[in-house]
Specification:
Layout lengths: L6 E6 L12 H7 L1 H5 L6 E10 L4 E3 L28 H13 L6 E3 L6 H10 L7 E6 L5 H11 L7 E7 L5 H6 L9 H15 L3 H5 L1 H4 L3 H4 L7 H10 L4 E6 L2 E2 L3 E2 L2 E5 L3
Parallel strand pairs: 1-6, 2-5, 2-6, 3-4
Antiparallel strand pairs: 1-10, 7-10, 8-9
């Protein structure tokens, strides 16, 4: 009998250096996944990654996932890491079926793409055995939060089929501001903190429509997310959990005073 999933998640993949930096609490949060966060073993995993941005929804259909190093000028050991998880072609086709049945008129199939950093890095810590089939789904940054929430709603039946749905991004993500930040600056910048606090309060209070329209509702929305690709995985996880799902903050830390690693669990109502 297939084990049903009641929860969906939005987690950070953080800076690529988290893959080798053992001092950061976000890394230890991901390492403790099976022991402290989510003990169930899913049949397969669907990752919505902020690192894959396409015009139309796309799924990767492969037998074995290659490791994509979509980051540059980092230490050499990071380019030797591997996460050869099996692909999940049946899940990919099921995702396409559900989306098209819900009115998404086009869903593309990528039969060469493996897992990008937004997918393989957190999974490498969460499920180090690389033995659970993984499928990746892209975001569409030219669309809005409501679009991605509805995309998640269409995928909700997957939970009853033993699929763990994970959105991978960052609750604040402004790399341009990161480059301008002076090395050694202490503390969290105010605009990032204010956006992050607003997002937390909106989620924990169940104000999902406000989150769908965060550009209008949240303080410093454009500064926190000049491009929305790393926030939209949150909307998908939120939508897949259901309108009455309860949100819970399960981790919170910061990277370089700008990147929020806030992580959320969405539990469907009984």
């Amino acid at each position: 009998m297939t084990l049903k999933m009641k929860d969906t998640f939005y987690i950070p993949h953080g800076s690529p250096t988290l893959s080798i930096d053992d001092s950061h609490s976000a890394r230890h949060f991901l390492l403790s996944w099976k022991d402290k966060v989510f003990a169930q073993t899913p049949k397969s995993i669907l990752v919505i990654s902020g690192h894959w941005d396409t015009t139309f929804p796309a799924v990767n259909i492969v037998q074995r996932n290659d490791t994509i190093y979509d980051f540059y000028n980092f230490p050499d050991p990071m380019y030797k890491l591997k996460y050869p998880a099996p692909g999940a072609p049946d899940l990919a086709l099921r995702v396409k079926e559900l989306l098209m049945a819900s009115g998404f008129k086009r869903v593309d199939e990528d039969r060469e793409r493996g897992l990008d950093f937004g997918a393989w890095f957190p999974l490498m810590l969460m499920y180090p055995g690389a033995d659970i089939p993984v499928c990746e789904l892209s975001v569409q940054s030219k669309m809005d939060g409501s679009y991605h929430y509805n995309l998640g709603k269409a995928l909700s039946p997957l939970k009853d089929e033993g699929v763990l749905i994970i959105g991978s991004g960052s609750a604040t993500h402004n790399l341009r501001a990161l480059k301008l930040r002076v090395a050694g600056d202490g503390g969290v910048v105010p605009w990032a903190s204010e956006f992050d606090t607003w997002l937390k309060e909106a989620l924990l209070e169940g104000r999902y429509e406000d989150v769908n329209h965060y550009e209008e509702k949240a303080p410093h929305a454009k500064m926190a997310h000049p491009w929305p690709d790393h926030l939209y995985p949150l909307h998908v996880a939120m939508g897949a959990a259901g309108e009455t799902a309860k949100a819970k903050l399960i981790h919170h830390s910061w990277g370089l005073g700008i990147l929020s690693y806030a992580s959320y669990q969405f539990t469907a109502a009984s």
